[in-house]
Amino acid sequence: MVLQSTARALLGRLAAEQAEARVPSLVAALVRGGETVWFGARGRVGEAAPTALTRYRLGSITKSMVAVLVMRLREEGELDMLDPLDKHLPGTPVGDLTIAQLLSHTGGLTAEPPGSWWERTPGAPAAGLLGDLGPEIARHRPGRRFHYSNLGYGLLGELVARKRGVGWARAVREEILEPLGMGAVTERAEPPCARGFAVHPWADVLLPEPEHDAGAMAPAGQLWSGAADLARWAGFLAGDGSGVLRAATLAEMREPAAVEDGPSWERGYGLGLQLARHGGRMLAGHTGSMPGFLATVWTDPADGVGVLFMGNTTSGIRGRLTHDLLDILDEHEPPLPAEWVPAPADEDLLALTGPWYWGPAAYALRLLPGRGLSLTPLGGLGRASRFVPQADGTWLGLDGYYAGETLRVESHPGGVHISLNTFIFTREPYDSSAPIPGGVDPDGWR
């Protein structure tokens, strides 16, 4: 748990938000290392203060859970990110859109489904939704831009249901919620839960908001959760997959696929996860909004921290609340760096460490745990990448310019060299005994 002084500062920020934004009730929590280290609450649900078990509607945070189901299908070989929608959900007028485009909101679909405002009216089953779709739901050229689409996640929810043979909500519960210990998450409002309200803009009075089964659009925003369970979700997003997804798959979901606000972006989207930059952090998570409710969860996997809030108001809670809570935690209790401990290394790898040269440019090769390698330019100018070992004795690029490329250590008459995507790295600048592409001037340096 956080120190008492930290908890007081966090509660002060939460109290200010609840009072200034006039929120009937507001809860928030911070997670570190998969554990909830602080929970705060203000306002009333009925006659009592909300607790960590009080359910609020998650809104579009639901989308991130549906996205995890889709990625599980990919891990099982049931689909590919480049598959067209028509391969798994035939008959729509946008069957050429890829699964990745739907996950990242880059398919150019309209934001909302046809018909009445779906968030405030009872929803139709999948057959009704699909039957209402026409060519007008395509608003932008696929891949051209980010355009948020609730409809896209309605389609993904139906895709999951058809692949699993059960409803999307049951699949979420059995494959994600129960393994993560989030058994109190529900598809509809169940006590203890907060009632959704709109707050009058010019008076301190409330208007109850409607809540219905959204039908085929439910995958876009229907689930309910308490702060305790949402904190477990934050721990999952900030962690290594917790047995629900492979760590590499979860990391892939957190990679930017589109940006929302231009070249110097602060907001973006991955595969089912919203992304944000704040104070040197790259945050991954999702916001949520439904009539009567607002919610947000952000995580930073770099140091295993997460933050969330939930409130029962249609509008008004400022998005910077989560950022401010993270800043308070960093100011009062900055994370300690992990202790350095020695690690064993094989002699053949030790012999490879040290300086290497790409032409005249100097690089350093360092060992990583598990026979991994790190190739970084000396002086900061150049391309850096990490590599993971493969069964055939090569290394595969993990990130940077050489992501997905193969690194090989090969012999030549004068020793060994590194072959990396047609480039040759040698122990001396332009070693003439190595197979340098284009050869080396026979007169050498002068």
Explained architecture:
By secondary structure, the protein is of the alpha+beta class. It folds into two domains: 4-332, DD-peptidase/beta-lactamase superfamily (Beta-lactamase, 3-Layer(aba) Sandwich); 347-425. It is 24% helix and 24% strand. The protein is built from ten helices and 20 strands. It has helices at 4-20, 61-75, 99-103, 126-132, 150-164, 168-177, 227-238, 247-253, 320-332, 347-350, and strands at 25-32, 35-43, 56-57, 197-199, 206-208, 224-225, 258-259, 267-269, 274-278, 281-290, 293-300, 305-311, 354-358, 361-368, 372-377, 385-389, 395-397, 406-412, 415-420, 423-425. The strands form four sheets. It has an eight-stranded antiparallel beta sheet, with helices on both faces. Helix 2 packs across helix 5 and helix 2 packs across helix 6 (168-177). The longest helix has 17 residues, at 4-20. The radius of gyration is 26 Å and the shape is globular. The chain starts with a helix and ends in a 21-residue tail after the last strand. The model has no long low-confidence stretch (mean pLDDT 96).
Q: What's the pLDDT, averaged over the residues?
A: 96
CATH superfamily label of the largest domain: DD-peptidase/beta-lactamase superfamily
Give the amount of beta strand, in percent.
15-25%
Oligomer: single chain
Number of helices: 10
Looking at the structure, the CATH topology of the largest domain is: Beta-lactamase
User: How helical, in percent, are the residues?
Assistant: 10-25%
C-alpha termini separation:
65 Å
Count the beta strands.
20
Pairing-aware structural class of the strands and helices?
A: alpha+beta
Report the uncertain regions: none
What is the number of independent domains?
2
